[in-house]
Amino acid sequence: MRLNLEKVSLPEPGPGQVLVRVEAAPINPSDLGLMFGPADMSTLARDGDALTARIPDAAMASLKPRLGQSMPVGNEGAGTVIAAGPDQQGMMGKRVAMLGGAMYARLRLIAAAECMVLPEGATAEQGAALYVNPLTALGFVETMRAEGHKAIVHAPAASNLGQMLVKICKADGIGLVNIVRSPRQMELLRGLGATHVVDSSSDTFRSDLTEAIAETGATLAFDAIGGGETTSIILNAMETVASRDAAAYDRYGSASAKQAYIYGALDTGPTILRRGFGFSWNIGGWLLFRALQRLDPAAVQRMRKRVADEMTTTFASHYTARIPLEQVLEPETVAAYVRKSTGEKYLITP
Amino acid sequence: MRLNLEKVSLPEPGPGQVLVRVEAAPINPSDLGLMFGPADMSTLARDGDALTARIPDAAMASLKPRLGQSMPVGNEGAGTVIAAGPDQQGMMGKRVAMLGGAMYARLRLIAAAECMVLPEGATAEQGAALYVNPLTALGFVETMRAEGHKAIVHAPAASNLGQMLVKICKADGIGLVNIVRSPRQMELLRGLGATHVVDSSSDTFRSDLTEAIAETGATLAFDAIGGGETTSIILNAMETVASRDAAAYDRYGSASAKQAYIYGALDTGPTILRRGFGFSWNIGGWLLFRALQRLDPAAVQRMRKRVADEMTTTFASHYTARIPLEQVLEPETVAAYVRKSTGEKYLITP
């Protein structure tokens, strides 16, 4: 694996296009996935200006289509329009939020339609992360509505995304069970107004989770951990609650439809399912880009409007540190931002 | 866990009911699930006329609603009507196939609507297993049609059910990838006209599976093993095929919608998912009774008619041995029928 900064020349903006000076771009877990993939991070090394690491042999098969391709990174970001196509002159000087990849750069040539103009006075930092986390959190709620569930279990819930979800569910009166990994994270979410927070590091985790599910009636879960037993533990807790309500023992488990989505891979190890949850269950992958295509367009419209309306409140992100572009590949910096500690988030400021 | 034969008195058949002398009832894996559940079979012991076994402590929590309840067993069977309600006198003397539980008995009082009258000359053995396996195999095909897939992967494919599926898919021109566990089973299915048979005991299993999936275009799988890595291996093979066809590398995996259903638990150990298959996947439980409620009623009607039409061909079952009711609880007999060897099937002949 080889990561480097590269000089590119960009053409003048054509019709429908603008050239943006990128001022801030967050490092999301999905960006780290593209940057480092399954590389063995203990083998990180500088090679001139580039950063290299070994890919374990077992992971190479699935990476075959990736070999030899140079891929720019950075899903989203914000900046100022410094040049514009002939039909986009009104965009000149505006600060915009962008989605579309290749944001870890000084300049980004992009379709004006893929930019959201920020309100007067908004900073690039406020606009840098208005797509991935906000739309994902709102996407969970719209998925819940579309699939007929009434409450959500979320893990790990103390992330920036999780904090947005707490605010959304509180405002909308939606039951939310937050799974966190420490007492400190529990305090953080309670401070935001979360009602149901359970700590997976506690001895009473499973019974706490079961009671929270019973109180909210949650039959839908979103899990960004992916590996290990989190999804399995959630489904088993849902089944325990559903069986309590059942009139008689059913050897095939309850008929309650239990759905879990794995939307991340913070733990890239295997998912372990202890199938004590009968036969009425579903586990699937959930990916924002594909969910946006599947959801009702009216719902997507509603989501986008809400992000714009609540950018400085519900959808405000908090950053652990700011990293200039030229420091992004320094090994000590990399070591910090690849940790993926819940609630820590880094911002690249080209 | 305690299993025993019990004397019961049955009332006279009322309106809409018939009394059937049960002549044959198969032991399906789903029956074994109800009979023994998670019991530790190494602790099987006679206790007077009953059979007992210890339930491991870890399994007790999920069995709480089951404790102290006596549950009759035997999902399906066939027999002769020996008494009938006043409005069902036309059923007298008819041989019928039945679904509805409590079939491991000399007599079964049942709604006439739950019986299928067998053609003149049909034996009870021919009629004993006309519900669970035939409707499950046809249910796979109807699920495939309803969800927009074009071919199926099935494991383990050499079972009675698997053999029916081979015949159905051959007759209907549907692509079917059969996963078997030995060269002998491979021969068996080839003899029935199966085109794609891959042997999980072979060194080339994964590449054989991938090529068979490529040739059929299968994006749907049914797995009765449940535990271990079978489902995971199938989804990864589907993803390998889908990525080959992709125009460019996508870090989130292919957009090809891959669906796997776990419809049994021959291996009750945990399901292990090595998520090399991107984010467009779904795994769910599949249960005949619930699928019949979900499927289009016209499809279910079509399924039932086909079972009646093809009972001696497509849906003929083969039995390893016949067991009189009084021998069902003898330890040596139990040891044989709980093995769940693929392709072995036992028939109780009360």
Structure report:
2 copies of one chain form a homodimer. Chain A is α/β, with parallel strands linked by helices and 350 residues long. Chain A has 2 domains: 2-129 and 317-348, Alpha-Beta Complex (Quinone Oxidoreductase, Chain A, domain 1); 138-294, Rossmann fold (3-Layer(aba) Sandwich), CATH 3.40.50.720. In chain A, 32% of the residues lie in helices and 27% in strands. Chain A contains 11 helices and 18 strands. Chain A has helices at 29-36, 57-63, 124-127, 132-146, 160-172, 183-191, 205-216, 230-245, 288-294, 297-309, 331-337; strands spanning 2-3, 17-27, 40-47, 50-54, 76-84, 95-99, 107-111, 115-117, 151-155, 175-180, 196-199, 220-223, 226-228, 258-262, 267-273, 281-285, 321-323, 346-348. In chain A, the strands form 4 sheets. In chain A, strands 2, 5, 6, 7, 8, 17 and 18 form a 7-stranded mixed β-sheet that branches. In chain A, strands 11-10-9-12-14-16 form a 6-stranded parallel β-sheet, with helices on both faces. Chain A has a 3-stranded antiparallel β-sheet with strand order 1-4-3, with no helix packed on it. In chain A, helix 11 (331-337) links the parallel strand 17 and strand 18. The longest helix of chain A is centred in the C-terminal third of the chain and has 16 residues, at 230-245. The two termini of chain A are 23 Å apart. The mean pLDDT of chain A is 92. Chains A and B meet through helix 1, helix 8, strand 15 and strand 16 of A and helix 1, helix 8, strand 15 and strand 16 of B.
